[in-house]
Amino acid sequence: MQGAPHTARTALPWVRSLSPRSATCLWPVVALFVAGCGGTSAPRSASGPAEAPPPTLTSPLIQLPGTPTAAFPLSAPPPPELTPEQNAQLEQDYARAMNRARSSAGKEAVPAFAEFVRKYPFHAPAQASLGLSYQSAGDLVRAAEHLGQAARLQPDAAGGWLQYGAVLYQCDRLGDAVQALQQAAQRDLRDDTSRFLLADVLGRMGFLPQSIEYLTQCVALQPTEAGYPIMRAWQRLQSGGNAESVAAAEADFRRGLEINPARAEAPWGIGVCRQRSSDWAGARAALQTAVESGPGLSGAWYALSQTTRKLGDTAASRTALARFHQLHAREVEELQRRFFEGQARRHPGNADARYLLGAWYERQGKRDPAVGAYRDALRLAPGHGPASLRLAALRAGRD
Question: Which of 124, 152, 176 is the last residue of a domain?
Answer without folding.
Answer: 176
